[in-house]
Amino acid sequence: MTSPIQHCKECVDLLGEYIEGTLPADRAKALEDHLSLCPPCITFVRTYRATRKLCRSALAREMPEELAFSLKSFLTKNVPGFGCSSDAPPGKPDGEPEKV
Fold it and tell me: CATH no. for residue 47?
């Protein structure tokens, strides 16, 4: 049996895993039990969730096509197994090895 959460700091330490759904069930239950009795922690959780959502939507942008192509080219050349051969530049057959 997992011990109950005694201090709010424990909630903060567990919150990321809890929100992601990766916190073990017994710890999630202990966290939920604490949250049911601690209004400041409930407020913190709501703020944490809202902040994550706002940041995700604010940071989601389309990458300019030229930058995306440049990044894929770099990764293809420098990261073994990176599979971006379908985005070959015009005039270069797909999957053709690059001449050095």
Answer: 1.10.10
Residue 93 belongs to some domain of the structure: no
Please state, in angstroms and rounded to a whole number, the distance separating the CA atoms of residues 34 and 41.
8
pTM of the model: 0.49
Task: Give the whole-angstrom CA distance, residue 87 versus residue 100.
Answer: 19
Nearest-angstrom CA–CA distance, 14 and 33: 13
Helices 39-59 and 25-35: crossing angle in degrees, nearest 10, is 120
Domain for residue 92, yes or no? no
Question: Is residue 53 situated within a structural domain?
Answer: yes
Span 37-80, pLDDT tens digits? 889 988 988 888 888 888 777 776 777 889 889 988 998 888 88
